[in-house]
Amino acid sequence: MTRQPKYSRSPSPSAVGMPVLGRRSVLRGMLAAGAVTALPSLTACGGGSGGGDTTTLSFGSNETGSVFAEQRQAMADAFTEASGTDVALNAVDHNTFQENISTYLQGNADDVFTWFAGYRMRFFAEQGLIGDVSDVWPLEGVPDSFKQASTGNDGKQYFVPQQYYPWAVFYRKSVFEENGYTVPTTLDQLVDLCEGMRDDGLVPFAFGDKDGWPAMGTFDMINMRVNGFDFHIRLMSGEEAWNGPEVKAVFETWRDLMPFHQTDSLGRTWQEAAQTLQRRESGLYVLGTFLNEQFPDDEDDLDLFTFPEIDPAIGATAIDAPIDGFCMSADPDNPEAAREFLAFLASAEAAAAAETTGLPFISASDTADTSGYSALQKKSAELVGQAEHIAQFLDRDTRPDFASTVIIPSLQAFISDPDDIDDLVESIESQKQSIFVD
Amino acid sequence: MTVTQDKPAERRAARRPPRRRGHRLTGRDRAVVTAMVAVPALFVVLLVWFPAIASVLLSFASWSGFGGIEDIEWIGLENYENLTTNYPPFWPAIRHNLLWLAFLFLVPTPLGLLLAVLLDKEIRGTRFYQTALYLPVVLSLALVGFIWQLVYSRDQGLLNAVLGLEGEARIDWYGDPEINLWAVLVATAWRHTGYVMLLYLAGLKGVDRSLREAASVDGANQAQTFFRVVFPVMRPINVIVLVIVVIESLRAFDLVWVVNRGTNGLEIMAALLTQNVVGEASRIGFGSAMAVIMLLISSVFITVYLRVMFKEEKR
C-alpha cells in the first residue's frame, strides 16, 4: 500500500518551496506580482517585535507540529533556564516560511531564525539582510568544513550550523551479505556491482524523480567526483559554463550509469523508490538519510557508503550534506542575547536538550553526545567527519530560481532522453545567462 | 394676446419629455448611490486594475523582489524575448492550455450534460448518483491529488494492477511525458463532469414542463424535444457553462501542481507562472511577462463573449 507522501522532512528548500495553491492561482500570481511593489514601505516598520526589551529574544522557526518543532521548543526552554533570557518562539509552517522569506527578512525578522547554509544565505548576507555573527565563532567542536559553509562572500560568518543529513549511497546490509557484494570504491567496481545485481534480478539503482529534486543529488555526486568540489561551487555560482566539457562529462558518466537505474523514474516519488529498496527489489539508492522514514521497522539493516571515486586525481572526499542552522537578523532587538543563543544552538547542550524529545539530530558539534544516535546516524556522522568538503545540495548552492525553473526541467529532460546531451547543455547555458544577470 | 403668448410655452412643455418624480434624487439617495458605486469601484481598481497594470509594468523589468522600487532595472522586452525563445517550457505550456480547453469542451461538458439529462428523469437513487458525481468537485485538492496518486502510481497504483501489467510492461502514467497530460485530463474530467452536471440539472429544473408537453403533442420524439426545445431554452445556463469551461482551462493548475509542479510533459501556464513568481524563485519580471500573455489570451475570450452578449441584448 502506498503511504501518503510526506514532505515533513524536506531534503532541499525547493522541494517545499512551492506551495500547493488554490484554484485562483492566476489572479493570485498577478496579485503577488503587484503586491510586492508595496513591500519596500513595510521595511520601515521592521526591526523585530519588541521595543528594546533585553530580557526576551524572538526566535523564528519553520517547523510546526513535528518532532523538529518539539526539539526547537526544548532547546529554547533549555536556553531560558541556563541564561534567564525568555525566548519567544515564533513558529511558522515550513512552506509559508520558505515562500515568505524575502518579505520576512525585509520586514520584521525575528532576532534569531532558522535557515540553511549555502548560496541563498550568502546572497542574503550580501544584501545586508542577515547579521554578521563572526564573533560567535569559533564554535566548540564544529569542524572547519562547517565554518567554510557558514561564511559569506566577504569572508565573515553569517550562519551557525546545528545539524545535517548527508547524501550517500544506501543499501541493505542483509542483501549485500546474502549475495556476497562488497562496497565499491571506484567507478569500475560500482559498474561491476551493478552488473552483478542485475544478474541476480535486482534493479541496481532505485530511482524516482517525479518531484524534480532527487536527481540533483545524483548530478552533484557525479559532478563532485568528475570535476571536484571547487568546480561544483563555481558552476553553481554561475562562473563556469554548463556547455563546457566538464558538465558534458558529468552527463556522459551519468548516461552510462542510466541503464542501471530504475526505469520510468519520472512518475515515481522518492518514497516509492525507497520502498523498492525496502522490499529488496533494488540494491542501491542515492539519497539523503531521510530515507530511513521508509524503513520504520528495519532501519538497522540500512547502511551507506559514499559515492565511489571516478577520477583518482579528484578522489571521493566531497559530499552533499545540507546543513540546517540559524541566522541572526540584520537588526536584532537584542543582539547580545541573540549571539549567546546562536552559540548555544550549535553546542552539545542544545543537542542534549533536543534529544529529550526522543529523537536526536546529527549535531554539527563533535562534542555532542552520540550515545543516543541510531547506527545510521553514527554512520552519517562518520561519513561527514571524513569528508574534506561539504556541499549543500544543488538547489541550496545556486540561485533558487535557476534550480527550480531551469535545472529541474533539464534534468528531467535528460532522464527521458539521456542521449541528447549537447542540446541540453546548450539550453541550460543559454537560460543560465538570462538568469545570472546581476 | 394672452392666448398666443401661452402657446409657445405649452409647446415647449409638450416637447420636453415627461419627467417622473422617481428620477429626482434626494441628497441622501445620491450619497448612498455614490457609496454603492464608489466602494466596489475602489475594490476593483485596487484588487484588479492595480495588480494587472503592475504586472504589465513589471513585465518590462528585472527584479528579484529584494530592495525598493529604485532597484528595479528596466529591460524593455527582454523578458518576452527570453520567454518565447529561451524558455523551453513556454510553448508546450501554451499548447497544453489550448488542448485543455478543447478537451474540456469536447469530453466532460457533453458528458455532464448527458448525466444531467439522465438524472433529471427521476430514476431510482437519483440523489445518490448526484452526490456521487458531484463529490469530486467538493473534495479538497490534497485529497484529490492523493486519490489519483493511488490510481496512477506506476509501481503500486490501482490502474496498472487492474490492467494486470507487471514489471517492465507497467505504464508510467504520471512520468511518461507522452501520456501524463492525458492522465491528468482524465482526472480533471472526473471533477469537471460533476460540476457541469450540477449546473445543467439546475437548468433543466427551470425548463417549463408545458414546453415539453407541447412538443410531444406536436409529435416530437425525445431527442427532438431535447435538442430543438429544451436545450435552446437553457441558453443562460449554456452561456455560464461556456464561460466556466474557458476560465477553468485557462487557469488549469491544481492537479498539475500536485502531480509534478508543471514539469515533464505537464507544462501549463499557471504552473509555470507560479514556479517563477511565488516562493523562493522570484523571477518577478519574467513571471509578470507570462501573466501578461495569459491576460491577453483571456482578453480574447472575454472580448468575444462580451460582444456576443451585447449583440443579444440589442436584439
UniProtKB/TrEMBL annotation, chain A:
Q: Which domain of life is it from?
A: Bacteria
- Record carries keyword Transport: yes
Pfam families to which the protein is assigned, alphabetical: SBP_bac_1 (PF01547)
Q: Which UniProt keywords apply?
A: Transport
InterPro entries per record: Bact_solute-bd_prot1, SBP, TAT_signal
PANTHER family, alphabetically?
ARABINOSE-BINDING PROTEIN-RELATED, OSMOPROTECTIVE COMPOUNDS-BINDING PROTEIN GGTB
What the record says about family reads: Belongs to the bacterial solute-binding protein 1 family.
Q: By what name is this protein known? A: Carbohydrate ABC transporter substrate-binding protein (CUT1 family)
- Which organism is this protein's natural source? Actinorugispora endophytica
TrEMBL record, chain B:
Q: Which residues lie within the region annotated Disordered?
A: 1-23
Lipid bilayer topology: Multi-pass membrane protein
Bias class Basic residues marks the residues at 13-23
Cite the SUPFAM superfamilies for this sequence. Answer: MetI-like
Q: Where in the cell is it found?
A: Cell membrane
The record's keywords, sorted A to Z, are:
Cell membrane, Membrane, Transmembrane, Transmembrane helix, Transport
Q: Which domain of life is it from?
A: Bacteria
Principal location listed in the UniProt entry:
membrane
Kindly name one Pfam family recorded for this protein.
Answer: BPD_transp_1
Question: Which GO BP terms apply?
Answer: transmembrane transport
Boundaries of each ABC transmembrane type-1 domain copy?
94-305
Q: InterPro entries from the xrefs?
A: ABC_transporter_permease (IPR051393), MetI-like (IPR000515), MetI-like_sf (IPR035906)
Residues spanning the membrane: 31-54, 98-119, 131-151, 179-202, 284-306
Q: Which GO terms describe its cellular component?
A: plasma membrane
What's this protein's family per the entry? Belongs to the binding-protein-dependent transport system permease family.
- Protein name stated in the entry: Carbohydrate ABC transporter membrane protein 1 (CUT1 family)
